Amino acid sequence: MNKQSEPVLLECDDIEKTLLAQLLVIDGGLLSLCRSERLTPDMFWRIRHQWIFDAILTLDQRGDEIDLTTVTQELERRGQLAQVNGDDMYLSKLATFNVSPSLTPALRTYAAEIRRMHEWRQLKQLGEMITTLAENRGDGMSVVTAWSKIQQQAQATRPYEPNQNFTFGADSFKVYQDMLKDAQENNESFALPWKALKPYAESVAPGDLIGVLGGSGSGKSAMLYMLAEFFAESEGKRTCYIFTEMRLKKVFDRRAAKHTGINYRRLKSNAKLVDGEKQMLQDDEHAMQSWAHKLDYWHAASIDDTTLFAQMQRMVDEWDTKVFVIDYLNDISITIQKGENAANAYRDFLADLEAFSNRTGTLIITAAQRNINDDKAYMIGQAYEQKVALLLDLKPKKLEQPLRYTFEGKTYEYSTGQYSPLVTVDVRKNRDDATGTLNLFYVGPRYLWVDVPTDFDDGSTDPGAYNESGSSWLEKTSDDRNESVSIPF
Predict the structure, then answer these.
(1) Which CATH class is domain 190-400+420-447?
(2) Per 3-state DSSP, what percentage of the chain is helix, strand, and coil (rounded to 5)?
(3) What is the dotted CATH code of the domain comprising 3-116?
(4) Are 467 and 398 a contacting pair, CB within 8 Å?
(5) Domain ranges of the chain
(6) What is the pTM of this model?
């Protein structure tokens, strides 16, 4: 047979024997080194090795001694001893195979190699699965369904990535000094667009997970899209806006309304625009040319968590995406394993999102709908509390009287019972520990979130620190008093 056509055996039989011999003869307590590499019985090449290692794990869980005698007794209890020993008393011979205390420090390396070979075998099996699906044309399934099946299997067999955050105590001082040096030399952070948020978080950093929580109609999507544009335009970061509910036309209509002030309803209903409005759209298009390439749009619609992570990883690898804005989490199908509690599944998903952010050095901003009557929404909200680095909880209140205000030369009117544009935002979770309440102003018809003075409702005319740009002005009037208050943003 031609050497190139010989099958490749992805096994490390001698290493499996050496590791098991060390556990049987030298010290069963070394099992912790195997656990650090997440070594499981199914990762061994030989069935008899799988049974031996499983017996060792069982003894350890019971708190029993681990040696040749106890392992032999456990295998006999299971009815597996005869098959393990065969005709050559395999277990006794194994206990004398390459046994030496000098090999103990390498035990973790052996465990890692056994796991690595198992992962290569899984990769080979995945390739065979793909080939079979292709040759059989999916046995009637569509190409998209077959591809989804392959992605799910690939994610399920994804190689284990060791936790690199393990630090020996003796090394901790040098590690800390290196951290301080790195923080001084590579202190990358992203600003936030609202001054009112500065007392709580002046900036956010790669690896952070930011959450926006709010009820229906609270302006979550507008806030997320505004953040997406801000990071692309002002921070110059490649950003992907991932949306599930809206169609692309609706997103672009909102973008046009935000930039130009053209009535969103006219854009939405495809009303005939006048020449002045057409020129405004052209001018806006021209103004965006310098940064539009930094903001990508992905209409993910109904998507599962496995596909979401796979596509996000592709964007990081191929396009160097630095910021992901996900609008919103309630529409993502979370994988719930058989027998798993749903609440734990949502926490695990947020933990995976956090781990992805840390591993890739990306910033992730997400939104979820708060609804105590919806179990999924409630559980996602609870998971938010535990996992995000910064949680902004939007709490708009309904107006008790009509309100009319002018923003950038356009007048907007609100009726009693509508949400007030003055919105309370609770900072409910913060990695910097500063929590509290702030106010932002939501110009709903423009899908804009802007700063307001904290004494806005008092009618103060003192612009104070808010007159830095001298650009936009808001005029607030109420039906029950004859006064006008001009407030700069």
Answers:
(1) alpha beta
(2) 50, 20, 30
(3) 1.10.860.10
(4) no
(5) 3-116, 190-400+420-447
(6) 0.62
